[in-house]
What does this fold into?
Amino acid sequence: MSFPTTNERQDDPVPQKRGWRGLIDAYRPYLPVTDSTPIVTLYEGNTPLIPVPSIAAEIGKKVEVFVKYDGLNPTGSFKDRGMTMAITKAKEEGAKAVICASTGNTSAAAAAYAKRGGLRAFVVIPDGYVALGKLAQALVYGAEVLAIRGNFDKALDIVREMGEHYPVTVVNSINPYRLEGQKTAAFEVVEDLGNAPDWLCIPVGNAGNITAYWMGFCQYHQLGKCDRLPKMMGFQAAGSAPIIAGHPIEHPETVATAIRIGNPANWQKALAVGEASQGEFNPVTDEEILHAYRLLGREGVFCEPASAASVAGLLKVKDRVPTGATIVCVLTGNGLKDPDSAIEHSETQLRQGIEPDLEAVAQVMGF
Ligand SMILES: *Cc1c(COP(=O)(O)O)cnc(C)c1O
It folds into this structure.
């Protein structure tokens, strides 16, 4: 038996991850920064693309399915990709404060990056509809949290106006730098697969992320880094599916609070992406979302309910998946963000009140 010698090991390619200093550093030529731009980063990006064979098996034909686990970013969601850019540019332009409306993850990311960059962070959230972990984050990072008695869409209306009348920079996905940062997720997918996937399945709320992924794929395609473009498959929660209904939803409802949005900010862009990529928008019910959420959990991947909409959607339209396809489902946020949903919707029972002795424990275990 022979083990590699020290010399042989030195010939191994250096893993790209080593020395990773965030996505602006990694993708500088493709982003609107200069040498003097003050980069605000938490070393976000470079998240894993994980194969999920048990989900592929559910499709019923030969396909490869991966999840892009963006819940592993510093604040636990893909919002960090956009926020490193948005806060960096706000700082470069001399802003002293930023503001966002949020269902939770944008506020967590805005708070973390703004405070790190030395700016004030105001976040406007719908009272009672933000998952516990996200609220905890905004408070710990030091944001000034304003909970309004209204939903996300109302919060965004207020924030847009604040940006027009007061000296605060809006960092919702109407901020173009957000999309620039978020497009890097598509770069990473292409680098990991060696090409673009056939399908990209993604949850859709304000539709910034689907727009950003498409920008990223198109840019890499133009540069010759991939020789095809994916079909963009967007999924909305059935109780909150304005793009599919064709009109705003006044009272959106879903367990997937991160996509509980009735009037998407990037609606027109999303329609353009759907058309250009010959993609589709489809609804998934809360039941389908939670089913996918549990399937992923059993693969060891804990995402938040909104993220599971991408996998729920894939399973819903599995009859239309071409044989041999490579599919990437985007998992936008970390499951730890929303412990209440996790406990409420888990099928696994917590067995409580067991006597603290070997026999009692063994008995409960079925021995
Ligand atoms: C923000 C968010 C979404 C929706 O992304 P959009 O860009 O608004 O479409 C989906 N899932 C999670 C976890 C999010 O935080």
